[in-house]
Amino acid sequence: MGLDDTPVLAPKESDTPKSISRSRTRSNDLTDMNDVWSELMLYGEEIAEKLRSYDVYAFTVTVSVRDTALQFKEYSTKITGGTQTGITLAREALKLFIENAPLPCRSIGLRASGLKQSQGAFQTDMFSDAESEEKERRIEEEISNICSRFGENKLTRGVLLNKVKNYSPGH
């Protein structure tokens, strides 16, 4: 049996993460698809902000679901061309949720993984909409710039208005 004497190194702030995720267990069950969409949008925007800060694109999205019996399941899909946008992360997660998870549920989570640095060119296929994705990325980046300049939550999507009042980012 071999032993490794090399010290364990803590990750540096500059290290690129392997995945970025957000979730929370609610005090009440999610019973409405609009609430699921709002949660996923909130998580998607927070994750997208982190993706842009690390200058990486996510090529896999995973939605995690804890049902009312507290059973935990995850569902994943690939994103052709990658993404740095919350709207794309949330849309893909919602599709997975609709296809696989029943309502009501106790909690949902969203994870972006398969992260790759953005400096390389990514191959897209004929079915992806790279122009629309880039437009969404620029819009979300400008929203982030405005919020960092004038204060968090000064500009938000309408679907998140109720969530923003009752939610503290990063929790």
Number-wise, the strands total: 5
Query: Counting H and I runs of at least 4 residues, what is the number of helices?
Result: 4
How large is the radius of gyration?
A: 17 Å
> Can you give the helix content as a percent range?
25-40%
Any low-confidence stretches, pLDDT <50, length ≥5?
Answer: 164-171
Query: What general outline do the C-alpha atoms trace?
Result: globular
**Strand percent estimate:** 25-35%
Mean pLDDT: 83
Name a few traits of the molecule.
single chain, 171 residues, 4 helices, globular
Commentary on this structure:
The protein has helices spanning 33-54, 86-100, 130-150, 161-165; strands at residues 19-30, 56-67, 72-83, 105-113, 116-117. By secondary structure, it is an alpha+beta fold. Strands 1, 2, 3, 4 and 5 form a 5-stranded antiparallel sheet that branches. Strand 2 and strand 3 form a beta hairpin. It is globular. Residues 164-171 have low confidence and may be disordered.
In short:
By secondary structure, the protein is an alpha+beta fold. The chain is 37% helix and 27% strand.
How are the secondary structure elements laid out?
Blueprint: E1 19-30, H1 33-54, E2 56-67, E3 72-83, H2 86-100, E4 105-113, E5 116-117, H3 130-150, H4 161-165
Antiparallel strand pairs: 1-4, 2-3, 2-4, 2-5
